[in-house]
Amino acid sequence: KIADCLSSLDALIAAQADKLDAFKTHKKGLMQQLFPREGETVPRLRFAEFRGAGEWEVKQLGEISNIRTGPFGSVLHESDYVEFGTPIITVEHLGEFWIEGDNAPKITDSDKERLSPYVLSEGDIVFSRVGSVDRSAIIRDAEKGWLFSGRLLRLRVITKENFSAFLNQMLKHEPSKAQIRDNAVGQTMPSLNTEILKRISLSFPSLPEQQKIAACLSSLDALIAAQADKLDALKTHERPDAATLPQPGSGGRMSNTAQPFASLDDLARHLREGLDKKYVLLFGFNGTGKTRLSM
Questions:
Q1: Quick one: which of 216, 272, 210 has its CA closest to 53?
Q2: Number of Cα atoms under 13 Å in the Cβ half of residue 46
Q3: Mapping DSSP to helix (H, G, I), strand (E, B) and coil, where does residue 236 land?
Q4: In whole angstroms, what is the distance from residue 163 CA to residue 39 CA?
Q5: Which of 204, 230, 251 is the last residue of a domain?
Q6: Nearest C-alpha neighbor of 142 from the set 109, 107, 108, 93
Q7: Residue 193 and residue 226 in one domain
Q8: Which domain holds residue 234?
Q9: Cα–Cα nearest to 33, from 220, 278, 293, 285
Q10: Same domain, 73 and 142
Q11: Please, are residues 173 and 203 in contact by the beta-carbon 8 Å criterion?
Q12: How distant, in Å, are the alpha carbons of 4, 138, 203, 245 from that of 66?
């Protein structure tokens, strides 16, 4: 009985791992279609209302944002940290999609006031300044009012024509990350500074198209994050919430009704409203953890 139970758990873990990989593969392929290729100014795939809308405009980050380096060590010391106060984030808190700051050190209200130029706002994007310089994360409402450390750079969009959630997704796109890595300096360890980031060039469509693309990809991020949490819970033998456990007749699939898209089939229905079906690769699941390709 125990062996059968463990075998079933192993099979479920493998199936959910395959599902997570499929979600990530889908997003990567979708980004390759929704963003222009290198040397091009029009993407291969556009939502219906933006077909024929014209070329995307190339802009440097310095044209659309204010970029600042975090406070240097002489301004803030480890001895300044307290048990309760305002969190200050550093490189280790940059998650795959957003900030993971549960263990972030904290500073007093007086230090926060002293370091007010380094207070974060919702929509800010923070970068690793050294090492993995292509790592970045967007600040959500939950992190508004936190601070960033000297190991980070903060980018704040200052133009009405640009949407920070779109820029966040563009910066996750591999060609954008490669451009940042290629422009980093340092022989032993790559590093960034404000001037380097200001010169990074990216392509932007109209604000409404930016918002549409950002909403689509951000919803997929939420789906991937939820799936990763479920997989972690299974691996550590934690008991998931009853609402997320496989239900009778579900073929072993785990529900995800709390997310914007419960599955890629739901995402498919959303995308088909605005995208050419022939270009979109959508994955379905047959309950065994294997994927099938539908067009």
A1: 210
A2: 18
A3: coil
A4: 22
A5: 204
A6: 93
A7: no
A8: 2-36+221-294
A9: 278
A10: yes
A11: no
A12: 58, 15, 18, 45
- Residue 275 three-state SS: coil
Token pair belonging to 131: 């090492």
Structure tokens at 36: 């222009």
Which residue type is seen at 22?
A
Q: For residue 121, give the 3-state DSSP assignment.
A: coil
For residue 123, report the phi and psi dihedrals to the nearest 5 degrees.
Answer: 95, -15
pLDDT in tens, the chain (295 residues): 556 565 677 888 888 999 999 999 999 999 999 999 988 999 999 999 999 999 999 999 999 999 999 998 778 888 899 999 999 999 999 998 899 999 999 999 999 999 999 999 999 999 999 999 999 999 999 999 999 999 999 999 999 999 999 999 999 999 999 999 999 999 889 999 999 999 999 999 999 999 999 999 999 999 999 999 999 888 886 444 445 544 444 444 444 433 444 554 565 555 555 444 433 444 333 333 333 333 2
Whether residues 229 and 180 fall in one domain? no
Residue 212: what residue type?
A: K
Extract the runs of DSSP E, i.e. beta strands, from 9-150.
57-60, 65-69, 86-89, 106-107, 125-128, 136-138, 147-148
Contact between 54 and 43 under an 8 Å Cβ cutoff? The reply is: no
Tell me the two tokens of residue 242: 């009853």
